Amino acid sequence: MIRNSAAEMAAKLNAGDITSVELTQLHLDRIASVDTDVHAFLYVNNEGALAQAAEVDAKRAAGEKMSPLAGVPLALKDVMTQKGVPTTCGSKILEGWRPPYDSTVVTNLKNNDIVILGKTNMDEFAMGSSTENSAYGPTHNPWDLSRIPGGSGGGSSAALAAFEAPLAIGTDTGGSIRQPAAVTGTVGVKPTYGGVSRFGLVAFSSSLDQAGPCARTVLDAALLHEAIAGHDPKDSTSINAPVPQVVAAAKSGDVKGMKIGVVKELNGDGYQSGVRTRFEESLELLAAAGAEIVEVSAPNFEYALAAYYLIAPSECSSNLARFDAMRYGLRVGDIDGASAESVMNLTREVGFGREVKRRIILGTYALSSGYYDAYYGSAQKVRTLITQDFNKAFEKCDVMVSPTCPTTAFKIGEKSNDPIAMYLNDIATIPVNMAGIGGMSLPAGLAPEDSLPVGFQIMAPAMKDERMYLVGAALEAALLSKWGAPLLSQIPALAGK
Amino acid sequence: MTSLSRDDVANLARLARIEMSDEELVNLSNEFTVILDAVARVQEVAGADVEPTSHPLPLRNVFRPDVVVASLTPEEALSGAPAQEESRFRVPQILGEE
């Protein structure tokens, strides 16, 4: 049962084959069995999840009209507030904090009767590509426990691949939904910026952050996308327009006549051979399904990484100023006569990890007088150039595609002392955030040389999110008929307890 | 090649309100030489004729109706406070002594 898709689970709930309490308990049992090895969860809300499931069962029994995913369990990235449930963002500075309010994403999940199992591990404040920067220890990739599950949302992607949850929420600032999806053989979608409310999402880089759905199938991601998306008066940057019809697109999967643009600059040198093999094969399958494959060029994408590592740290140095030890979270050094400034200094020294400090200092530098134009100002100009590259390319195609990541999952510890090597993981995912458009990663198979998952990325113009689901569904169907079973059926069994 | 000395980093850490050990300052100073070289590439294409983009959405002055809605109770607002006194956040000394 736990290996079913969320849509299949929903159908069984509707048919009365299983209750939400039973389904939730199966997942809690799975977490209890395998999560000591995987460490996808920072907090498992056993009582809360079962209580919510019981309410859903009661509504269903009373004959109420149920939403499409009602009663299906979900794992929530620990960057989202949920009232009364610990929210740490993978940081010591928020250890033990229980927010007094729900994020809008959580409100939407609850309104759709989606059962929240608990909070998943992440790089501290979503800064990282491996989940190794969590103050609570790394998450392990269920395909190979010695490898990273991607980041920053490695807990959410690992929970899906380990069958601990059929659905999860991620957030994507530079690839934190798509890269974990790629390296775990799961599906992750970064909607158009503003498509999903950021209210209650602990801010890292506000002009880039976007929450989105994580799942094991394209249709499941679409169902979750429609459940969480929509305008929110509490987020002034949320788009006041109808939600793209992503479920209909995921059910159709018709790509006949669609033009798919292969980004010349996101392929070739620096991409692992097995990643390229699977990418080329996916292109052939899409062509066979009736799409037209064209080449497009985005010459400024090569500057995206540099611009990102100025814009994101700059915004984070401002956003993380709120962790000042005054109103919530950790407070250190509050002895008689200590000044507020000394308490802040000591609290932030102890509360923040190495990568967070590195980025705050970098952002402080990039924004400081005398350097602002050379660094932050120039990075903002690169952002314009990248958006222009996308606009020009979308004149020639309906969606753009690339491998999601240059390589498959690397070993835990392999890159943790080399920030530049770590940042290179995000080379293909960052341009999407810079332009504020949508991006999806779905599994394209295993790299022949290491038998690890490869991700296929689809990028669509702003508010045309349904196009990603059309192409994703077409490719997923073609690959499924080739493999005969979903990719995750090949994942090695976890020993469990 | 841009570089930041240990003292430059110490000054930034002071501005960012983060206490740092000497070892951390030296490490960051070394790392920044590499990182700044990598990010300085943005200057290659950021010509004077290119407009900056600060945000993906061209939004200006977003308003919502001015309606009173439920807010946090004092107890809820103080629920995460490291210290409190008389329904207020208790904070360390902010002003100098006299």
Automatic annotation (TrEMBL), chain A:
Its EC number is 6.3.5.7. InterPro entries: Amidase, Amidase_CS, Amidase_dom, AS_sf, GatA. GO terms for molecular function: ATP binding; glutaminyl-tRNA synthase (glutamine-hydrolyzing) activity. GO terms for cellular component: glutamyl-tRNA(Gln) amidotransferase complex; mitochondrion. Residues 22-467 form the Amidase domain. The keyword Ribosomal protein does not apply. GO terms for biological process: translation. It is an enzyme of class 6 (ligase). Keywords: ATP-binding, Ligase, Nucleotide-binding, Protein biosynthesis. Pfam families: Amidase. It catalyses: L-glutamyl-tRNA(Gln) + L-glutamine + ATP + H2O = L-glutaminyl-tRNA(Gln) + L-glutamate + ADP + phosphate + H(+). Belongs to the amidase family. GatA subfamily. This is glutaminyl-tRNA synthase (glutamine-hydrolyzing). It comes from freshwater metagenome.
TrEMBL record, chain B:
InterPro entries: Asp/Glu-ADT_sf_sub_c, GatC. SUPFAM superfamilies: Glu-tRNAGln amidotransferase C subunit (SSF141000). HAMAP family: GatC (MF_00122). Residues 76-98 are annotated as: Disordered. This is Unannotated protein. Coiled coil: none annotated. GO terms for biological process: glutaminyl-tRNAGln biosynthesis via transamidation; regulation of translational fidelity. The lineage of its organism: unclassified sequences, metagenomes, ecological metagenomes.
